[in-house]
Amino acid sequence: MTKSTINSNKSARLDAVLTHKVWGFPIFLGVLWIMFQTTFVLGQIPMNWIEEGVQMLNIFLKNSMSDGWFKSVLTDGIIVGVGGVLMFLPNILILFAFIGFMEDSGYMARVAVIMDKLMHVIGLHGKSFIPLIMGFGCNVPAIMATKTIENRRDRLLTMLIIPFMSCSARLPVYVLIAGTFFPNNAGSVIFGIYIFGILVSMLTATVLSKTVFKNTVDDSPIVLSPYKYPSFRVMWQIIRINSGEYLKKISGVVLIASIIVWSLGYFPHHDNIAPREQLEQSYLGKIGKTIEPIIEPIGMDWRMGVAVLAGISAKELIVSTMSILYFDEESDTENEHAFKERFINDKHLQPLNALAFLIFVLLYFPCIAVFITIKNQSGKWRYAIFLAIYTTALAWFLAFAVYQVGGFFV
Question: What is the pLDDT of residue 119?
Answer without folding.
Answer: 84
